[in-house]
Amino acid sequence: MNDNTKLTRTTDETPRTEPALLPAVDVIEDASGITLHADMPGVPKDNLSLQVEADTLTIEGTLALDLPEGMEASHAEVKLPRYRRVFTLSKELDTGKVSAEFRHGVLTLRIPKAEHAQPRRIEVQVA
Amino acid sequence: MYYRSLFPRDVFAELDRLQREMQQAFDVGPNIRGLTRGFPALNVGGTPLTVDIYAFAPGLDPATLDVQLEKGTLAIAGERKAAEVPEKAAVHIDERFAGRFRRVVSLPDDVDPNAIEAKYRDGVLHIRIQRKEEAQPRRIAIQ
So what's the pLDDT on residue B27? Predict the structure, then answer.
């Protein structure tokens, strides 16, 4: 794991709120930014909340399943009604340009790197 | 001989077994199908009229999902593609399931195999099976 990518560090503490499921994520970094995929099945788009505050990114979502009235659960592997995960972003990421897509319960976030952090190819002059 | 069959195990073997069981209870389970509980996660519930199965399978094309009902079991199978990794990219976290999957649920006896519907919404496959009408409780009129 690359140490300079603080996105990989997940803070476990969950202040102020109730227990939540930790969505499974994939985090992929390329030269121009970071792509994050998070599995949040059962969350309608309106129940999804993304927050960037200083250097933390919070992903939250509340499940809304079509439950029939009077249903009794006989077996449950998903036992909490919400997802939450907090990431620490590093400085070279441009949090003003985060783009998000949510489809079939998968959240895809793209966080580009700030321009000054983009790799540049330096021409070597031959004297 | 009778005495031995009443006390067939010796105490140390019992302690050994106990210790092993404790370890298994606290360790990650030595599941032959891997460390996770399986993909997709399933919730099963029911009402007096229906049996409802929720499979948490995000990011799938519903057309590739294979749901089969056979001899009182319901099988959910499919494949999930791994996230695309461009060349020269670094994968920092790789937790999401990718690959082929199959999970099987056994159903109660009173379901009607002809009254089944499946919906895929927000990454959750919801399968609803009606219970047979003749299995419904009925009030019997007294003459």
Answer: 54
State residue A43 phi and psi, 5-degree precision.
-100, 115
B40 cis-preceded (ω within 30 degrees of 0): yes
Interface contact flag, B95 A25, Cβ < 8 Å? yes
Select from A39, A44, A77 the Cβ nearest to the Cβ of B42: A77
Determine the structural domain holding residue A50 and report its residue range. 6-65+78-113
Cα distances (angstroms) measured from residue B60 to each of A41, A105, B5, B92: 11, 9, 56, 23
Q: B135 vs chain A: nearest CA distance in angstroms?
A: 18
Q: Domain B37-135 - what CATH class? A: mainly beta
Nearest to B131, CA basis, from A71, A83, A8: A71
Report the complex ipTM. 0.76
pLDDT, tens digit, 9 for 90 and up, residues A51-62: 998 889 999 999
* Residue A83: inside a domain: yes
Domain extents in chain B: 37-135
Does A4 lie at the interface with B, CB-CB under 8 angstroms? Answer: no
Number of domains in chain A: 1
Number of Cβ pairs < 8 A linking chain A and chain B: 128
